[in-house]
Write a structure and sequence with these properties.
five-stranded parallel sheet; five-stranded mixed sheet; Rossmann fold; N-(1-d-carboxylethyl)-l-norvaline Dehydrogenase, domain 2
C-alpha cells in the first residue's frame, strides 16, 4: 500500500516516520527546504517511546507529483489547507483514500468540494509533538493515537486494509465505526481548552485558582458541547466526565497548542477551531457568549499580528 504523507512536520513526521520505520511504503510530500533537511540529516524522531533516525526518507515535491497513491495522510494546519489540497491533488486517483487529521469539521467541506465525498474518510489524532530548533520531531509526552473511519459509520474493506498497515506503526492506530462522533468530541474538548487558555493567557491550573475560574472553564465546555448536540453529536457521558475532570484538575499545566502558538506569535486556527463553532451555534440558535468573546479575542490577535 503506497501512502503519501502531506508534510513532514511534527504530526506528519511522527506518524509517517513510524510507518516508515515499520517498513511501510511511505513518501513525504514536502517543500524544497524540508526536502533538503531530510536529505541531509534524515527524519529524526525524539520520543519517550524510542528515538529513531531515518536516513534520507523518500520525498517528493509538488511539481514532481505524478502518480496516484492508495492513501493520502493529511496533517497540515487549517490555514495551509488550500495550498496543501492543490499540492497533493495529482496523487488522488479513483481508489485513493484521504485521511485528514485536522481539527474541527470545516476541512471536510473543502475536501469534499475538491474530490467528492467518497474518497474522504474521517480522522483524528491525539499526540503532543513539535519540531525543535534542529528540525527534529520531538514527542513531548508518551501518548499517541491515530483514529480513522468511514464518515457514514460502520466498517469497510478499505478501512480494514489501511488499519492492517497502520497498526504496524505502533502508535495506537484504530479503525472507528463512529468516527464523526469521535471527531466532534475531540473538537469540543480542543475548542474548550483553546478558547479558555488563549482568552485567559494561562494554563488550566492558573485559571482554576482564579475567582470563578472553574465556572468559566466548565461554562466554556457546556457551550461547545451544546453546539455538538445541536448538530446531532452530543458528547457522551464518559467523554464529558473525563474532559470535565481534565479541566478541573488543580495545578494542571495543561494548555492548548493554540495557546502555545499565540504566545510564540505564530498563526492560529481561529476560524477553523473556534469561529466555525460560533457560526454553527448561530445557525442552530445556540447561545455561546464565552466562545464568541474568545473568537473575537483571537481575531484581534490575528489582526495585530498581520499588522
Amino acid at each position: 500500500m503506497r501512502i503519501l504523507v502531506v508534510g513532514a512536520g511534527a504530526i506528519g513526521g511522527y506518524f509517517g516516520g513510524r510507518l516508515l520505520q515499520a517498513g511501510g511504503d511511505i513518501t513525504f510530500l514536502v517543500r524544497p527546504r524540508r526536502a533538503a533537511e531530510l536529505a541531509s540529516a534524515g527524519l529524526v524522531i525524539r520520543s519517550p517511546t524510542g528515538d529513531v533516525t531515518l536516513p534520507n526518507p523518500p520525498t517528493v515535491q509538488a511539481d514532481a507529483l505524478k502518480e496516484h497513491f492508495d492513501v493520502v495522510l493529511l496533517s497540515c494546519k487549517a490555514y495551509d489547507l488550500q495550498d496543501a489540497v492543490a499540492s497533493f491533488a495529482p496523487a488522488v486517483g479513483p481508489q485513493t483514500a484521504i485521511i485528514p487529521l485536522l481539527n474541527g469539521m470545516r476541512h471536510l467541506d473543502v475536501l469534499d468540494a475538491k474530490f467528492g465525498r467518497e474518497p474522504v474518510l474521517g480522522g483524528l489524532c491525539a499526540i503532543a509533538v513539535t519540531l525543535n530548533d534542529k528540525r527534529e520531531v520531538v514527542q513531548l509526552q508518551p501518548m499517541q493515537s491515530l483514529t480513522f473511519g468511514e464518515r457514514a459509520g460502520g466498517s469497510s474493506d478499505r478501512v480494514q486494509a489501511i488499519f492492517d498497515v497502520f497498526k504496524r506503526g505502533n502508535f495506537n492506530a484504530s479503525a472507528s465505526e463512529n468516527i464523526m462522533q469521535e471527531m466532534w468530541e475531540k473538537w469540543v474538548f480542543l475548542a474548550s481548552l483553546a478558547a479558555s487558555t488563549t482568552l485567559m493567557r494561562a494554563p488550566v491550573g492558573v485559571i482554576l485558582a482564579a475567582p470563578d475560574g472553574k465556572e468559566f472553564l466548565l461554562g466554556m465546555l457546556d457551550e461547545c458541547s451544546s453546539v455538538a448536540a445541536a448538530a446531532g453529536y452530543a458528547p457522551g457521558g464518559p467523554f464529558f466526565q473525563r474532559v470535565s475532570g481534565m479541566l478541573t484538575t488543580e495545578g494542571s499545566p495543561m494548555t492548548a497548542s493554540m495557546f502555545r502558538d499565540l504566545r510564540a506569535g505564530l498563526p492560529v486556527e481561529a476560524d477553523h477551531v473556534i469561529g466555525d463553532l460560533v457560526t454553527r451555534a448561530d445557525a442552530a440558535k445556540v447561545p455561546v457568549p464565552k466562545l464568541r468573546i474568545a473568537y473575537t479575542h483571537l481575531k484581534v490577535y490575528e489582526a495585530q499580528r498581520g499588522g
